[in-house]
Amino acid sequence: MAREALRTIIRIDEEKCNGCGQCVEACAEGAIQLVDGKARLVSESYCDGLGACIGECPQGAISFERRVAEEFDERAVEAHLRQTGRAPATPHAHDHARCPGAAARQFQPVGHAGRSTGQASALGQWPVQLALVPPTAPYFQGADLLVTADCVPFAYADYHADLLSGKAVVVGCPKLDDAEFYVQKLGAILSASDIRSITVAIMEVPCCRGLERIVRRAVAQAGKHLPVEVVTIGIQGEKVGEAHQEAHVSAGHEA
């Protein structure tokens, strides 16, 4: 009997689903099939929770939820794919990177400078979206983590040189995305790694403060004692105030 665990898994809203089948093709594990004209999750154990199908749904019918579900079973997936004639393209251990565009990569910043600013890219990893990064990615080990609201890189011209350089990064929107999922995902990253510090980069708009609260809850959940620095960027691209606030957050306490 398959074991169950509290984990992130996809949810399909059958009322929104129009049966187009795009999610079926996007799911490399074959976890989704069309049944009676609607997309259905045929087995919880086939779903890795990465969500490659979400971006392919034109109706917005697929989302994440966190609930008790059967654990992901890679062997069951491989058997299922062979049975349905969709054998995996390459044999490899499950690494939260079935979608080629979400494959975890670590690299040295290439230093391509922009034409107008001459500023080089400081990005040293892929992916960056919090929903996609694998919690056990090697680039989190011993890293200083930058948690960035997704509007910040657009507003702050010195983002790469001043904030991103030398850090691992995750990006998300506290208003549009699932805050509870972010707490769980960040908590998993912190539990699986030895991150040294966290910088939270947010916009000055009120809703962006939610990202700071998410980070502090995740730190407490993981039972860590870490310095958390908050950098606020104005909507015209300036740092607001004296660049940052700093506090230590540990288990059972949110500063």
Brief characterization of the structure:
With 255 residues, the chain is an alpha/beta fold.
Describe how the helices and strands are arranged:
Layout: E1 4-12, H1 22-26, E2 32-35, E3 38-41, E4 62-70, H2 74-83, E5 105-106, E6 125-126, E7 144-149, H3 152-155, H4 159-164, E8 168-172, H5 179-192, E9 197-203, H6 209-222, E10 226-233, E11 245-249
Parallel strand pairs: 7-8, 7-9, 9-10
Antiparallel strand pairs: 1-4, 2-3, 5-6, 10-11
Helix pairs in contact: 5-6
Describe the fold and architecture:
It is a single chain. The protein is 21% helix and 24% strand. With 255 residues, it is of the alpha/beta class. The protein has 2 domains: 4-83, Alpha-Beta Plaits; 104-249, no CATH class. Strands 8-7-9-10-11 form a 5-stranded mixed β-sheet. A two-stranded antiparallel ribbon has the order 1-4. A hairpin with a 2-residue loop joins β2 and β3 (38-41). The longest helix has 14 residues, at 179-192. The termini are far apart. Residues 89-97 and 251-255 have low confidence and may be disordered.
